[in-house]
Amino acid sequence: xxxxxxxxxxxxxxxxxxxxxxxxxxxxxxxxVGLEYRYIPPVAKLIDIVKTGTLGQVKMVAIREHRFPFLxxxxxxxxxxxxxxxxxxxxxxxxxxLMRLFVGSNPVRVMASGAIDVNHKDExxxxxxxxxxxxxYVIVEFENGSRGMLDLCMFAEGSKNEQEISVVGDIGKGxxxxxxxxxxxGTRVDGRDGVKTLQAADDRIKYDGLHHGSSYLEHMNFLxxxxxxxxxxxxxxxxxxxxxxxxxxxxLSIEKGRFVSIQEVLNQ
Length: 268
Fold this sequence. Notes:
Elements: E1 2-6, H1 16-24, E2 30-34, H2 41-51, E3 58-66, H3 81-84, H4 87-90, H5 93-103, E4 107-115, E5 135-142, E6 147-153, E7 163-169, E8 172-178, E9 182-187, E10 196-199, H6 214-227, H7 237-256, E11 260-261, H8 262-266
Parallel strand pairs: 1-2, 3-6
Antiparallel strand pairs: 3-7, 4-5, 4-11, 5-6, 7-8, 8-9, 9-10
InterPro entries: Gfo-Idh-MocA_inositol_DH (IPR050424), Gfo/Idh/MocA-like_OxRdtase_C (IPR004104)
Pfam families: GFO_IDH_MocA_C
Protein name: OLC1v1031780C1
């Protein structure tokens, strides 16, 4: 038996440790978490570049998402923090997963600043006005000393790229741009003139959709794991748990106006 779990539904109020333990007691089940941003072609290519060591030891990851507001969902569940965990959980867990993947380390603490400035302020559902933030800056510190930063704006439709991802190591730098699907990377030694540019594509994708074909590739990966009777998924429950924990810590940081440790979140 196999099961795919959408990450955004792993709300922090659930007993996540019990879910992990339950999965361990069922070795006949393959549980894979839905962190599909790993499969967006330019992002996947940047992940490969980092894994080869071309950039050296990653020190900084900067992710900018400037996009359109949240779309309307079933029963407007994504308009309220009590349903989604908040914007930085429901949407941005995918970016926090990428940060962790790039730096190869677990998060220690999070500092965030965010607000509700433009979107959904004139909407009312069952007498309630949405309370989800529409912009934020988030800084994540990792065990190995690396740092990640998220720059989120959800009223920035006038952007050429929805996501711009920068990964800087002690040897070089790599970037991925979505939906242009451009990847650039270079080394400190070669300088600006040595920067390489690649148009990333995956011929298996027939329809991009809002996730730029990554949802299809993710499910293909999961199907291959099932058919191969893999002992472990490409993205496991721990990956999902930590990515959501970073988002929860960021939401708490905005609320409390201070750094929030990941351990504080996991102990709740």
